[in-house]
What does this fold into?
Amino acid sequence: MKILIAPDSFKGSLSAVRFCEIAEKTIKEIIPDAQIDCMPVADGGEGTLDCLKTALNCQIMKCFVQNSLYEEEVCSVGFIDKGKTAIIEAAQSNGLPQIKGRENPELTSTYGVGQLAGFACDMGAKKIILTLGGSSTNDCGLGFMAALGGCFYNKDGVSFVPTGGTLKDVAEIDLSMMYPRLQGARFEALCDVDNPLYGENGCSAVFGPQKGADPEMVKRLDEGCRHIADLFNKMRTTDFALEKGAGAAGGLGFCVLAGMNGQLKSGIDTILSICDFESRVKGCDLIITGEGSFDKQSAMGKTIGGILKGAGKVPVTVFCGKSDGSKACGIKDVVEISKGQELEEAIKNAEVNLEKAIREYFTNKF
It folds into this structure.
């Protein structure tokens, strides 16, 4: 029996890598001669780099950069294709966990993410893949560009690094010193949101409150984003602010499009392509996947949706913390591992629950 184990993480309790370890060990105890291929995946959010490290055995290099409040952090960059492609998980630098309790999108910056991109280019990478999930920022990616040599001037001609709260103070933009640093590298950003840069569905209105913004701050942030969009519209022939995903990561998606001449792509589709999912699923008898909460939206996008799309006729079994009872085409079974437990208990016992559920499932089914 050939089984591909390709789960997402259970947010707050079980990483995709740990899921694979538990599942492989347990299945092997029940079906010793099973051929098992572990491919922990993510849709471009937190934990993506760890998944790719395990699935691809990519080279990891560490460097010192600044978090979104300019404090020193040690972050990792993954390299594949013999170093030609770098994978950067932006949330390592500009994520919310590093500044927990001090969230303020008027003060935070993507400067450290730019430092990571600069490090990757200095190491010789010609393609930079950015994962955009989990940000604490709302600076339209100007901090990112500043770290790479982009210059932003106020009305008095003084150069400064903008944050979400000072976007309105930018009077002039000069990116001419930034592009030589990039050495022709191409940029791709992975995101799973369609939000434009500004407006009622923009990054400030939709995601600002999650990052610490009250209604008045949301209004100021949105005005700042509109201002930056106007400045870029004078430099570009396309209004990138209205593109789907421009509002990802507080406008870092906009930065990739308008500042880096890059592309925005589906997180899970790109990750599955990088991991060669299409080839690895061939000849499989079963795919095991999972996520913390499974509902009718799960099969329409993100990790499980991407796996179902690429699974073909191979049946898929989903292990999840909780389920609303939905079961899409291609799903063999949905197994709720913490049924009847309160959230705190389910999180605490996630590993035990998963092992027990897998043991019972394979004992009874096979």
Q: What stands out?
A: The chain has a mean pLDDT of 93. The CA atoms of residues 140 and 251 lie 4 Å apart. DSSP finds 14 helices and 13 strands in the chain. The longest strand covers residues 72-80.
